[in-house]
Structure formats: structure tokens, C-alpha cells
Design brief:
The protein is mainly α. The protein has 2 domains: 91 residues, Zinc finger, CHC2-typedomain (DNA Primase, Chain A, Alpha-Beta Complex); 105 residues, no CATH class. Helices cover 69% and strands 5% of the residues. The chain has 8 helices and 4 strands, in the order H-H-E-E-E-E-H-H-H-H-H-H. The chain has a 4-stranded antiparallel beta sheet with strand order 1-2-3-4. Strand 3 and strand 4 form a beta hairpin. The longest helix is centred in the middle third of the chain and has 51 residues.
Length: 217
Amino acid sequence: MNIFEEVKARVSARHVAENYGLKVGRNGMACCPFHNDKHPSMKIDDSHYHCFGCGAHGDAIGFVAAMFGLGQYEAACRINEDFNLGICVDASISEAEQAEISRQIRNKKKITEIKDRFGIWKKTKTDDLLECERLIEKAEKAVMESSDPHVVIITGSFVYLMHIKAIVGYWLDILCFGTEEDVKEFFMAEGKEVDRIVANVKRAGNDILGRSRKAVG
């Protein structure tokens, strides 16, 4: 094992963070030290930390590197010294090898960050579309229960909602039940369109509900 693997095998990310002053609650949450965090938004466990506020993410070595402005190798050496791990830092590790290991760590961190952002996007859009689905159902019910439904039905808003209803349902099926590849293809093809549709559905739904309340009144 190299120094990176040995350090992470001997000390946890949480133990390292707490040793350098981070106060971690029993639920593993802490105020993120990498941005002005007034309410705990960082989750930290034995292997990694992740901030849901600023997106900071990494392992024990990454935490020390970010905290003290060090490279990955220097951060690993500092943990080795500060925790008296006694890991032999072999001089045979060349600068080129150190740079390659650091590059691999950066790439892995970047991939993890991209996956995290994608996961947040998926959850956010799923919630948005579920809200749209509920709004469409509520608008339909309001029209059917209206004392004068024709006042609402003839509007463009109602026609639009009836047209878009199937599309919203289809998109939700992809996000909730599709494979990872299905969701990625959806993101690439319709990612920007979702926001436009969500805004239009909210506008149309609120228009219908407003008309229905006036009709009742």
C-alpha cells in the first residue's frame, strides 16, 4: 500500500476532521468549514465528507488538503505526522508518481462530484414534476366541481394542461423507474425543457384554480 491507502486505512475522515477542530453531531452532521455555514450542511462518516451546501466532497486526506491548502501528498504526510501513524514515507516515491496519484485522486473526486450533482438534479426534477402532476389533478378536479366549468374549459390554460399531462407522466416514469442510462439520455435531451414545462404548468394550473375560485365566489 502507498501512503494514501495506509492513511485512509488507519484513520477515518470523521476522526481526522474532529481532530482539526470540526464539531460533528451524533448524526454525523457538521457546519461546513469551507463556506459560511450557519446550519449544519456537511455530512461526514468514516470514509468521506460531503457538504450539501457548497458541494465540498472528499476523504480524510482531501479534508486536510482543503483545510490547510496542501497537495494530496503533503496532506497525507501531515496526517501521518499529526496522528503519529508511523507510516514510512518511502523516498522511492518519485515526484512523477506523487503527481500521478494526486491526478487520479482529483479525477475520482471530480467524478464523484458530478454524480452527486446529477443525483441532486434528478431528485429536484422528480419533485418538480410530481408537484406538476398534483397541480394538474387539482386543476381538473376544480373544473369538474365548478358551477360553470365551461368558463374554465375553454381557456388555453386548461387545454395546455390536458396536452402536457401525458408528457409529465412519461417523464416521471423515466426518472422514477428508468435505468441510469435512461435518465442520462433524458437529461441530455430534455434537461432544459423540464424547467420550461414546470414553469408553464404552474402558471396554467394557478390560472385555472384562480378562475375556479372566482366562479365559486
